[in-house]
Amino acid sequence: MPPALLQVSHLSRTFGTMTAVDDINLSLEPGQLLGLLGPNGAGKSTTIRMLAGLLEPSSGTIRYQEWSLAEHPTEAKRLFGYVADQPLIFPLLTGWEYVQFVGGLYGFSSDEIKRKAWPLLERFHLIPAIHRRADHYSHGMQQKLALVAQLVHEPQVLLADEPTVGLDPASAAEMSHIFREFCQAGHAILISTHLLNMAQELCDTVVILSKGRLIAEGSPQALVDNAGDSLQELFLRLTREEDTGS
Question: Which keywords does this Swiss-Prot/TrEMBL entry list (predicted)?
Fold first, then answer.
């Protein structure tokens, strides 16, 4: 059996005496869309930043297929894309220059980048603004541009931290369609989100974090069936129990 696209084992991160992420285990298989849920301060963004190689774990391992992120960062980083909650856009570049820059980092020619990116830009209605400087883009436009740039190199795994923040409903729906198509092509996605309805509709698996610990994991339907609640009610009950220690 081929290795998982992403395998996370006993991942922890401390900041002084505070434990932000506490012994998390995760895996992503081809075609899987995993939602990382939790209240503010639960450790979602810290987890994703470690998976993206932006923050060093205090302990634990992260592997993309056969490559350890710590031991073989270049090989591992070729296998994933990362969309931050605050898009990492160079403000003095035009939108198209930014897409070309990111695609060029992965060795694609201008023609290849255009072939891969243009249909996505059209779906997000970014073509009329694509030659404007990115600092003139709204947050939602920057978010869509960052996603397109990451999808150009067809990563095996896409990491997306609150990807729908700042998007209008039509753009959020289009992003969901693109995510489904991406997974149907054999890739995998890990997203963090506060939108429980979206997670319930979109994700194959959800993981609920509270105070850095994994407190529930499974398909949205299985979690709801076992608990007798909606996903929102289950989320609120579990995180409230963590807060009260009951």
Answer: ATP-binding, Nucleotide-binding, Transport
